[in-house]
Amino acid sequence: MTTPDLSVLLDRDRAEAELFDLLRIPSVSADPTRTADMAATAEFLRAKLADLGFTARIDPTAGHPVVYAERLNAPGQPTVLIYGHYDVQPEAPLEEWVTPPFEPTVRDGRIYARGSTDDKGQAYAHVKGVELLLSQGELPVNVKFLLEGEEEIGSPNLEPYLRDHAGELKADVIVISDGSRFAPDVPTITYGVRGLSYVEIHVQGANRDLHSGSYGGAAPNPINALAEIITRLKDDQGRVTIPGFYDGIDDLTDTERQMWADLPHDDAAFAASIGVPALPGEAGYTTLERLWGRPTLDVNGIWGGYQGEGSKTVIAAKAGAKVSMRLVPGQDPERITRLISEYVPTLAPAGTTAVVHPHHGGRPFKFDLNSPYNLAANRALKRVFGREAVFARTGGSIPIVAAFNDILHAPVLFVDLGLNEDAPHSPNESFAVTDYHNGILTSAYLLQELGAPDTAE
């Protein structure tokens, strides 16, 4: 079948202008003073999708609203649910932005604005991809959009929404673009995400802060105790010491290890990109294997004692740390949380007690490399980039994937359009103009390929 070259039909100036209008709305879900901006963003998206002939509406939740739209004019063809989020991270620290975070600015081929890559730019690329296809006729598949406004605060109301609308949201595949490709010139299909167990460790010593001269050398020190506990959570080979932590893990396959070894990765360049002289980690695994296919334990924050200017000679009564454990297939977050909760108290030095307080978690997932949806995505990306896609897993966690699996019973297809250098969540977040345009083309070609006979059957 001969299909037109959509790249010559794309109105790039208009696509950028529309995205800029969307980026100017400060849709920060964590800020209660911006509720009206959240509503305005939802209406922007609803109106655009309605203009494209979708049945589109704004559904309230207990928090920020969901935008839902559908166009079901392809009987017998697959139904594709496109998920994204229109909320963005807070812009602080404002003083570190070179240009205002909600006034999109193009510098050196990049669109600088909060939400440019996470996730307004990537989500809107799908809207424009649909529009591009509609300029040539009817869509080749049935398309539904689910655009939420609370992803950056943990999607607290999305799971209830999915349960309430499960029948309406039914789809053959769920497409998500909310992450990064492996490298600028490397189209990437993400086929696995790590899970998460997030906890706090609280250590208690004396019943009050103590004078370090009067009590030092005799009283227990919770900060020292906490440091000892943290040190004992890993051995000198970089392995987590929690009993049972590695039980049941799905080992990396030879195919995966070879596939990742063939990727254009350079440890020295990776280390230089984050300004460190070495890349420590679990012995026996490459950097990419540790990032994508092995579990981790990291301290994300630590507190205790005097934090102000100058000195205060005190032995704190309490200390604490926030700890995240990234999990791989075969690990259950509830079980891992229970294991660390049982283990940490046994590490508390004499005179102290240690307690673990669970926060939240998410299940790891891995999808079939050879599914018809992954193969369709590969064909679409090849039409844009002129080369085969690479298959990667991500070190991050996307807890909502579990809800999609449990409630909607549909496979998820990750076709990420951004890059790590886009600096999502950081000051001066950006999205390459070329990546935005390529994202529009990728979306359009993906829908065409998902409607091809060998995929639709």
From TrEMBL:
Question: Can the keyword Transferase be found in this entry's annotation?
Answer: no
Q: Which GO terms describe its molecular function?
A: metal ion binding; peptidase activity
Enumerate the Gene3D superfamilies for this protein. Answer: 3.30.70.360, Zn peptidases
- Domain Peptidase M20 dimerisation, first and last residues per copy: 192-350
Q: Which InterPro entries match?
A: Cyt/Met_Dipeptidase, Peptidase_M20, Peptidase_M20_dimer
User: What SUPFAM superfamilies does the record point to?
Assistant: Zn-dependent exopeptidases (SSF53187)
What are the UniProt keywords, alphabetically? Hydrolase, Metal-binding, Protease
Instruction: Identify the Pfam families for this entry.
Output: M20_dimer, Peptidase_M20
Single biological process term from Gene Ontology: proteolysis
Per its record, how is this protein called by name? Answer: Peptidase M20
The uppermost taxa in this organism's lineage are:
Bacteria, Thermotogati, Deinococcota, Deinococci, Deinococcales
